[in-house]
Amino acid sequence: MALASSAMMQIHSPLLQTHQVGIRNKQRVILCNQMGIQYKLGEVGFHCRGVLSLQKGDKNGSFVVRAESGTVSADAPGPTSIAKNDKNNCNNKRARPGDENIRQEAARLHGNGTSHEFSAKYVPFCPGTKTDEEYSLDEIVYRSRSGCLLDVQHNMDALKRYDGKYWRNLFDSRVGKTTWPYGSGVWSKKEWVLPEIDNDHIVSAFEGNSNLFWAERYGKEILGMNDLWVKHCGISHTGSFKDLGMTVLVSQVNRLRKMNRPLMGVGCASTGDTSAALSAYCAAAGIPAIVFLPANKISIAQLVQPIANGALVLSLDTDFDGCMRLIREVTAELPIYLANSLNSLRLEGQKTAAIEILQQFDWEVPDWVIVPGGNLGNIYAFYKGFQMCKELGLVDRVPRLVCAQAANANPLYLHYKSGWKDFKAMKASATFASAIQIGDPVSIDRAVFALQSCDGIVEEATEEELMDAAAQADLKGMFICPHTGVALAALVKLRSKGVIGLNDRTVVVSTAHGLKFTQSKIDYHSHKIPDMKCQYANPPLQVKADFGSVMDVLKKKLAPL
Fold this sequence. Notes:
Blueprint: E1 7-11, E2 19-23, E3 28-32, E4 38-39, E5 48-49, E6 52-56, E7 62-67, E8 71-72, H1 86-89, H2 102-110, E9 120-124, E10 150-154, H3 156-159, H4 164-174, E11 212-214, H5 216-223, E12 228-232, H6 242-258, E13 265-269, H7 273-285, E14 289-294, H8 300-308, E15 312-316, H9 320-333, E16 336-338, H10 345-350, H11 352-360, E17 368-372, H12 377-391, E18 400-406, H13 411-417, H14 444-453, E19 457-461, H15 463-475, H16 482-496, E20 506-510, H17 518-525, H18 547-557
Parallel strand pairs: 3-7, 12-20, 13-14, 13-16, 14-15, 17-18, 17-20, 18-19
Antiparallel strand pairs: 1-2, 3-4, 5-8, 6-7, 9-10, 11-12
């Protein structure tokens, strides 16, 4: 909007006197709250409880009015900048000086992005048990004094000062932007993730914002469903959902290193995807990564990622559970930060995928969400994301969750079928869904709590069922990983039992990209998997290189459209 050559603007504060800011010729004013939201002049009142400051903006003569602390009313429109006139908004000039990067631009416009209003801390994960035990997120601690897992607890009273409409508008306003760090699907929910971290300490590849697509043919032709969706978390920086959690964890480690904490690096035990994500984000931050992998149990595509990103890779003659035991012993002796989902920081990033699903459905809640489960942190993360949205008024309910396990590594399924009686760890057998080949999951207590809280279900899939489901999905236009095959096979079973209805809106979470698991697809379509029919295999046909032979095959194989 065009501004007068000389004007006065009032900023109203219920606790402070009315502030007047002069607007001189060729200057502009940006109204900006603590979370970086900017408002157009003349379009909305800027109501702020707290401390206001006026600071010089860019070299074009702008000013920024900031709420250094306090709250802002929830009836504001989405963020926007204020230009001298509308014509300037439509040109192709860079929005920032050429010698300024997006981190510097964010610091100039919004300060360091740390919150004086919102906070989070570690507390023991002991549902139903009262305790005063708590830890700062800057402490390096993974379990409570009694041995319980920890959980990140947000100051919900502070978050509830804003209504659901405010949070929906805020999160929606950040989608698709390149503003640091809110262009990330994780950091666009920063206030719900790590509200106190300096924006300059964040390590992000603008992960998240992954595709939620309508699986039309698969749903209709295989299941008779018209509202089946796949949340493709594998469309991400390193090809799996692990990026969502690793950006949070490595950002916090980066913060600790800036605080001169004596950390040698970050370590993890992995079945493949965790190591890939950790290595990439550590490489981006210049932090050493140490990876423990079970020898000969992950795909070449997964193995090459940490190697390419410069991680110290130890291939150990054991399974994932053995690697996990070793990394826990090592991190107890050396100043190496543990990156496995025993560390609850990762789950703060992973929960944002649940919030994204709600956003992508325009804040409507699906009936079912099916999540593959191995170490079981992700099923709790999805529950936590949905539950926060319900508690803070963005939605009115939580969907029912299904945890899908491979039959060769199904301790949660057996626990569920026993009526949640005493949990028993198992020795996991080999499965094509190698990332969930875990017999002693760290997050068993979290998973049970999540499923019991939302009337959830656990289902399993055999090797043949998961590979057939993956092949059928691929034949309908997808290209999925074996773990997503587990989830789809579980869906087939639940549909056949009538548990999931014909018209139920159902989301299957695809946790990794199919390109990471091409060998299993090659073996399937080549009929090279022992004791498996591979009934949906589509091997190439060997044909003589002459016109008649080619035409004979085409006439035989192709039906008229």
